[in-house]
Amino acid sequence: MKERKGEAVSEVDAIGDLLCSMSDALWDHPQVKFRETYAAGLFETKLQEEGFAVKKGLGGIPTALSGTYGSGKPVIGLLGEFDALPGMSQEAGILTKKPVQEGAPGHGCGHNLLGVGAFGAAIAVKRFLEKNHLPGTVIFFGCPAEEGGSGKGFMARDHVFDDVDAAFTWHPGEVNSVSVSSTMANYQVRYRFYGKASHAAMAPERGRSALDALELMNVGVQFLREHVPADTRIHYAITDTGGFAPGIVQDFSEAVYLMRAGSLDGVRELYRRVNLVAQGAATMTETKVEEQFIKACSNILPSSRLNRVMQKNLEAVPAPAYSSEELAYARAVQKTAGSGKTYFDQLYSACDSEKDRERFEVQRDLPLHAGALPLAKESFGFVSSDVGDVSWNCPTAQINGTTMPAGLAMHSWQVVSVGKSSIAHKGMLYAAKVMAGSAIDVLTDPSVAAEAKEEMDRRTGGKKYVCPIPEDVKPQI
Ligand SMILES: [Zn+2]
Ligand SMILES: [Zn+2]
2-183+299-460, which class in CATH? Predict the structure, then answer.
């Protein structure tokens, strides 16, 4: 079986050119949340060519799709994101900030690589099942709108992940490591204030300012911050100030709030209190407040069983080697990025074994952290991901793959710029192999899925997943 697994994993190299060209094509056609028609179309075509049964429009999202191959248990899910970020357009392979098109989107989170890496793993697993006439199912999930849309939350609400036994994914980044930490649950809610317009000098008493209400709400929330648990975050953006003329009392204003906490219960409580503040502001100003629930996501429920499977594969697959040109390019990119605490530093500081620390030490000063890092202790990350909603439905694990020079900040122009480089391609193929190997381990050893399920039940305490997005909330396309 070991040999057959090795053959399957090397299928990723056999289709390497196709995968790199698909990733570059996504990079060339960056589209933001729920509008990823190019990516969805490309995956649909390629999945069909490979003999997968394609389903579209999952969770009420036109660009969400799945491709299924095989039958019976276990069912393996491979999660592929492909959305870009607004305003992040940037030319590839250069060392200065220069958009391809001013204001256009760009792949600042590497999701062009993410989606195609997961797709590559799905193809390798499919060919493995086919060649060895084995039972089992592999599903590639095309997951839109990770950035700001919680696409997987809507898909989970639609029961898309109900029958999956193990889900795997990855994220492009600066290290090769298993991503063990839990993340923050969140709610995103729009608040709209309605007042009464009036001449601000002649008849101020007749006006009721929606802008005042919004400002008071924001001030109230600043005071609230002192009295919330430490694992809480509250962010906001004013999306409409109600106008640009100070001589008119503003009769409308709008803000979008993003509330995060370590658990959904924590977010729910935060939401209740922010709502009270909003109502208080409306009362004070005699305006009306209306709220619109945009989206939500759950915290990640880690699976240490699947994390161990991924770690084994992370160490078994040879990590990419780089040419002197690639190393020189990586150093040049690093110079443009400035310094600050990196993800590598964060993992290193959580490391408590001498032997593991040595594995970090050898990589510390390299411009590309390419060697597999040891399995870290479970921790809590101050980020959110809609992978959380998958993880409450089936055991889920993910890795980070090195696709960029060390020390770059995610969502920066540098990340877009390196997204078509040979470094990015190598990291994507490596991640695809690790995911394929992990999936094959679950397919060929029934005890893995059973143990992962047992662990999941233990962690949830038998609590059933309830999607944090209310039934009547539609994806805002
Ligand atoms: Zn991102
Ligand atoms: Zn991302």
Answer: alpha beta
